Write a sequence for this structure.
């Protein structure tokens, strides 16, 4: 099995950041390359999901306040229009 460091599609920056130029649809050298590529992409997805989860946890208290406010406003709106008779009852008078 070829190591990524030995592959022509691998590069490393002076800061130590790894750059993978491999494309699973064109530049696959070994079946193991696909497995490594999948692991890398899953890692990216996982880190994105963790970032979204952290952000959601930060804004959760504000969302709760907004939901309570909107619920209160909708209840007040329903109360203010409760004096109106439904249209079905008006038809029964005639």
């Amino acid at each position: 099995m070829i190591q990524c460091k030995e592959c022509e599609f691998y590069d490393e920056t002076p800061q130590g950041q790894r750059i993978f130029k491999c494309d699973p649809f064109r530049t696959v050298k070994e079946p193991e390359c696909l497995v490594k590529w999948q692991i890398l992409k899953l890692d990216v997805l996982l880190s994105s999901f963790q970032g979204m989860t952290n952000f959601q946890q930060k804004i959760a208290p504000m969302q709760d306040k907004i939901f309570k406010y909107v619920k209160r406003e909708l209840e007040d709106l329903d109360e203010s229009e409760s004096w109106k008779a439904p249209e079905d009852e008006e038809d029964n008078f005639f």
User: Anything to note?
Assistant: The longest helix spans residues 31-80. The chain has a mean pLDDT of 87.
